[in-house]
Amino acid sequence: MKTFVLVTDRRLPDVNLKNITQNRADVLCRAITAAFYLDQDIRRDVTLILKTPEKAIQIDGGKVKGVRPDERSNAGILKKVLEGGRQPGVKLLDKYEITEDALWLDISGQNYRETSVPENPVFVIGGDTGMKAPDGARKISLGKKSYMGSHCITILNHWMDVQ
User: Nearest-CA neighbor of 15 among 57, 47, 62, 53?
Assistant: First the structure.
């Protein structure tokens, strides 16, 4: 099982289905697509955590139902859960603590191709506002450029697929 934690310093958005870029819900929706979608299937071995300062949303690929590859459908799921509704495989958490053995994406980290990966890795990725890894965190890098969080998830999924 792989876990991706997308960290943002933004509050969980009020999701406007007519304009998902408002409050940057689109960033969270792109992360959902990147974490789970294959051509005609979804990844069942992935958990995605959308972590904000006050809460987190957990999506379990082995249990989730109703996710689609388009951002608007996924925005509808986020809206439903944030408004107290239920969705199979999706939970609203009061908090989520990142484990000590997590791998933090950081440009200054060790090249990901040269990194040993635990059996059930947890990758911590900054959202559109970035993030700072805590002192002593294990940092890995995808290279000298900063990529969108959803693209980082895609790269890491591919890397794990070919291991």
Answer: 57
